[in-house]
């Protein structure tokens, strides 16, 4: 079957309620006056990856469980307005939702409603196989029940990526995702020894590449047994919210991955996309476009860190650019 989709995104559809707070952690008080207000909008991890890769010109399809509720209507409208095909599987428990507390410096604290899934929830294997067979790659969000879809994806023969987010390297919930994916993203936030965890993922699983993002410190790239630091990219505007930065990084990386770029250029694409995402208020959904990303990825003043220039030269030499 000829592929009609570049990236199949599984899971991570839902809504966030954004609450701006004067500081994080938030001290106890009877009440706070919130400015610029409280906004509920569609967009969780899978939605943001689907948005990011679509904005970069990749053909995308998203599948997840959704409820017959107002939150599900927001998710359906999100995909309809952006032209992202969506396969929805009915969820009796309702659409996933979360509350994000956002501080003045753009940091966020997410409170996820864990009642929106149950053991009987499934993404139908036949549907997953059919969508995967028509796709070049699958990005699997760690929301339940996506781990149960991993065997069907493997049978379909697509490459797989996943984002473990703030995994501590110990929680067993994340392991099926970590060990089944060809490309693994995660954050260093909860890792005592990021390199050890990255190498453990590569040694025990299928991952050819492991990327650990570290916020303003950039990211760490493990490929072919070699660990490389990828410096952060200077955002094109003031940082207002870090929500979705990791999803944007993954989207940029996947653009390079599917284009056959070397891993260093893929990481640079990810860093550019992630930096842009930090300039977007969490109350709206936006992502960097392909032309803008490619232009920023070759801009000599993109960052003040000379190491990025060195990495860029090495990437250009390797790719013959």
UniProtKB/TrEMBL annotation:
Family annotation (Gene3D superfamilies): 3.40.1190.20
Ranges where the Carbohydrate kinase PfkB domain occurs: 7-285
Keywords: Kinase, Transferase
MF GO annotations: kinase activity
Keyword Cell wall biogenesis/degradation: no
PROSITE patterns with a match to the protein in the record: PFKB_KINASES_2
The protein's name in its UniProt record: Sugar kinase
UniProt organism field: Kitasatospora cystarginea
